Write the structure tokens for this entry.
Amino acid sequence: MARRKLIYEGKAKILYEGPEPGTLVQYFKDDATAFNAEKKAVIEGKGVLNNRLSEFFMTGLMQIGVPTHFIKRLNMREQLIRQVEIIPLEVIVRNFAAGTIAKRLGLEEGTPLPRPIIEFCYKDDALGDPLVSEEHIAAFGWASQQDLDDMVSMALRVNDFMSGLMLAVGIRLVDFKIEIGRAWDNDFMRLILADEISPDSCRLWDIETGQKLDKDVFRRDLGDLADAYTEVARRLGVLPTNAPAPSKPTLIN
Ligand SMILES: Nc1ncnc2c1ncn2[C@@H]1O[C@H](COP(=O)(O)OP(=O)(O)OP(=O)(O)O)[C@@H](O)[C@H]1O
Ligand SMILES: [Mg+2]
């Protein structure tokens, strides 16, 4: 088989050239990193889980009208996506205080926030993805005011959708991060949801026990990360784990 052209290798994923112009193949690795890659490990099975979960969330989002880069899943670790020009911002939505906002503002983790708070971080590993304001974004031209308005409304839609989905399976969506990109249809530009939505990019707590089911398990050495992600997938019915044996042979790819 001809080798595919590598476009980009990141910490958690690899992008290859796709079969058609304007498409990419996104490969989910088992690598886990935290604290700007100071802490690293290989968590067997993480890539498979994130590929399935990101597919599940993006498919649902498309069904409610949020445009995403997801085209189709190709196999256990790869999905076909639409290539976009990533806006160099991480868009964070917070419903409860945790992580850096808790530290920065002296809030106890788990404190409900008065309303969803959106933060932007400038995507630059060398700088540690610093928090930036809309003022910085406008001044440096990373996004226009119109883009910013659209990004905020998209982020809030993702928040409502994901919060409801998680609540239904007894999980609190504490916060999450998304990336958004520009796609062109002829001369018409629109913003679409890109990258991934997975327990790598969300904080997910069991509603009853507060047990963490996201990457904090790895960041804070709280147990087995793959077990936590498997639990999220199982509750959402995304993996056939513990499901009764299918009556006819199922194609597993
Ligand atoms: N649809 C897309 N089109 C183009 N680039 C994308 C798309 N979706 C995600 N990306 C980019 O692909 C890369 C995915 O790799 P990964 O998440 O492993 O990167 P990373 O190590 O987190 O680094 P980065 O700081 O670049 O995000 C990211 O740079 C992300 O911005
Ligand atoms: Mg990334």
About this structure: The helical segments are 46-63, 99-105, 134-140, 145-167, 216-219, 225-236. Residues 10, 12 surround magnesium ion (ligand 2) (CB under 6 Å). The chain has two domains: 6-82, 86-224.
